[in-house]
Amino acid sequence: MDHSFLSGSDFVGITFWVVSIAMWASTIFFFYEGMRVSAKWRTSMVVAGLITFIAAVHYMYMREFWVTMGESPVVYRYIDWVLTVPLQMVEFYLILIAAGAAVSGGSFWRLLVGTLVMVIGGYLGESGMISILLGFIIGMIGWAVIIWEIFRGEASQAASQNASVSSAFNAMRLIVLIGWAIYPLGYVLGLMMGSVDANTLNWIYNLADFVNKILFGLIIWNLAIKDTA
Ligand SMILES: *C/C=C(C)/C=C/C=C(C)/C=C/C1=C(C)CCCC1(C)C
């Protein structure tokens, strides 16, 4: 019984707690702010709020799981990722559309399929349905498709032609390149090399989610507010 409440010495449990509340608060913020930006930015703001909303719900379960079991909440993380990561990709497409940039549906599909391959590959490897190495390779291919599309592909060209969008687009793709690198690194260190324990892995993932979901949404909010003014 004494394991069902958060203990003051459970540092990782505290990070789960802080991030879950931050996700709820961000959700309210994005939905509320979405009502005061101009109409063309509303979908982007709603999607930013959906991302933190989905994460908030999962974080409630993840922190519960962590506090009672003391183990990595792997299934919940991946269910969260399979929903939120594709939505983050949709955001790249949505901000280009809102800014009136010329971008085709092909770009949308490449981003979406790339994220699904990345997350599903990682899950199959992590859950032992395929080898850990194969799961890693499939995941890396999916991530590479995304990086190509936003740094060199059609989405990147469309963004560079549009002044209002290009700085936000640039900040968002740096999150995908640098902020996202934490997850495959955790996969390598935790699963392939066994050199980090569940404690280290989880607080790092929690910090990464905070940056990659909340900061990501704030960049879109900043763009929408500036463009509305
Ligand atoms: C909010 C959650 C986010 C942004 C999660 C992102 C997850 C990744 C970028 C995961 C990437 C992986 C690889 C690139 C290869 C190995 C397996 C994964 C799934 C850990």
Can you put this structure into words, describing what you see?
- The mean pLDDT is 94.
- Helix 3 (74-98) packs antiparallel against helix 4.
- With 229 residues, the chain is mainly α.
- The protein has one domain: Rhodopsin 7-helix transmembrane proteins (Rhopdopsin 7-helix transmembrane proteins, Up-down Bundle), CATH 1.20.1070.
- 81% of the residues lie in helices and 0% in strands.
- The longest helix has 31 residues, at 198-228.
- Retinal (RET) binds at residues 81, 84-85, 118-119, 122, 136, 139-140, 143, 180, 183-184, 187, 209, 212-213.
- Retinal binds at residues 81, 84-85, 118-119, 122, 136, 139-140, 143, 180, 183-184, 187, 209, 212-213.
Give the arrangement of secondary structure elements:
Elements: H1 11-34, H2 42-69, H3 74-98, H4 105-126, H5 132-151, H6 154-160, H7 163-179, H8 182-192, H9 198-228
Helix pairs in contact: 1-2, 1-9, 2-3, 2-9, 3-4, 4-5, 5-8, 7-9, 8-9
The chain binds retinal (RET).
CATH topology: Rhopdopsin 7-helix transmembrane proteins
Tell me the name of the CATH class: Mainly Alpha
How would you describe the shape? globular
What do the pLDDT scores average to?
94
How far is the first residue's CA from the last residue's CA? 54 Å
Beta-sheet strand percentage?
Answer: under 5%
The count of helical stretches stands at 9
Domain tally:
1
CATH homologous superfamily grouping: Rhodopsin 7-helix transmembrane proteins
